[in-house]
Amino acid sequence: MRIPPPGPTPDIEFEDRQYRLRSLMAIDQLDLLVCYGDAWRTANIRYFTDFRPVDGINGIEQAVLLFPLAGEPELFVADGCLDAALEVTPFVVRPLNELPGTNAQTFGAWKPSSVGVAGAGQMPAPIRTALDGVMDGYGVKETDVLARTKAVKSEWEVGQLQHAATLTDVAMSRLEEIVTSGELMSERDLAREADIAMIRAGADGVAFLSMVQSGPRSSYSLALPSHRTPQPGDLVLTDIGARYGNYVADGGRGFTVGEVSDEVMDVVEASVSAVEAGLAFARPGITASALNRQIQSVLIERGYGDYSIEARGRGTGHGTGMDPEEEMPWIGPTNEEVLRPNMVFTLKATINKPGVGGLRTERLVHLTDAGGTPLDRFPMRNHW
Asked: Within 10 Å of residue 330's Cβ, how many Cβ atoms?
């Protein structure tokens, strides 16, 4: 199987995004939105243009976009990225070092009385300092207006995410093929095989560094692969996602190797049952906290309250789109946001029990009027 390569984002997508964002800005009485993104958190920039900052330091990984309520946006990127940004961006692109001088030139023309900032938490100090100078004298206020706009996906976006999820399933199928063949590979080599399988099938790369943790190491909630080789009786935690064009999937699965103990089997069943409860409950009109309770309560009732970050209240899901974790919707215990059709998010249940093992069961879900539809298809119960 090979997924066809992604094309550029259709113009109508960008037009619709700008329209919806401006509609919310008008309601929130925002005249200008300042958007920060970088090579690792790309969505605040790629929502407006197919340009993506490149990995690096000293500014080449950074970008700032000024989005007015009325008028054309302006994108600021590092000098070395200017040509690439101009190639794919239909509006003005300027060097990042010109940002401090935009107050009189650009802000003066827009005459904003209220300015919002998206991505403030990711901004490095030099960018923040430059923006503080630019925004001095204007009414700056916190806003989640861009996060709310990104949270609801178009039909085209859901299709892109479906491809990313399918490619992630390819990676899991490759792991199943290796483990069931009896071939012995280290966690590191298994992760690499998963990455290669996704890329050969059409992925542009990985959404994040792939995780494979086996045996005692599966009881760590988050860890990168080591040279340990999974053994019979092990529980193995994986967290793998593919990047397809501008979009990514985030998929956690676990599997057992050979004969395993009843304790290991119970960990698997509890984790999977918790996510199944969330999927059965998911529908538009409920709050994120109500959905979180369905998953969290199963983990607690099954006796894993002390062995699960989700049971302890970290949250049982998050928005996914251009970044593996987007701000909205956060499926968490204190979030009273009402879930809407065409949101895409993960539902997850992690269990890490020292002396037994752990896994993360995670599904990528498209919320429709009929409920939650998983975009990934690979089984959640895997005994190899």
From this structure: 22
Task: Report the C-alpha gap between 19 and 260 in whole angstroms.
Answer: 55
Q: Nearest 5°: CA angle at 381, between 301 and 278?
A: 45
Query: On the CB side of 358, how many CA atoms lie within 13 Å of its CA?
Result: 26
Backbone angles phi, psi at 222, to 5 degrees: -135, 120
Contact 255, 179 (CB under 8 A): yes
pLDDT tens readout for residues 249-272 = 999 999 999 999 999 999 999 999
Question: Treating both helix axes as pointing N-terminal to C-terminal, what angle do 262-281 and 288-301 enclose, rounded to 10 degrees?
Answer: 160
How confident is the model at residue 180, as a pLDDT?
Answer: 97
Per-residue burial over 79-110, b = 16 or more CB atoms within 10 Å of its CB, e = otherwise: eebbebbeeebeeebbebeebeebeeebbeeb
Q: How far, rounded to the nearest angstrom, does the alpha carbon of residue 273 sit from its chain's CA centroid?
A: 23
pLDDT in tens, 129-146: 888 877 777 778 889 999
Q: Measure the CA dihedral 279/280/284/289, to 10°.
A: -70
What is 178-240 written as a DSSP string? HHHHT----HHHHHHHHHHHHHHTT-SEESS--EEEEGGGGGSSS----SPPP-TT-EEEEEE
CA-CA distances (angstroms) from residue 87 to 82, 122, 243, 358?
A: 9, 26, 22, 46
- The helix-helix angle for 187-200 and 155-181 (nearest 10°) equals 130
Please state the rounded mean pLDDT for residues 336-359: 97
What burial class does residue 5 get, using C-beta atoms within 10 Å of its C-beta: 0-12 exposed, 13-18 middle, 19+ buried? Answer: exposed
- The span from the CA of 162 to the CA of 164, in Å, is 5
- Mean pLDDT, residues 286-306: 98
pTM above 0.90, yes or no: yes
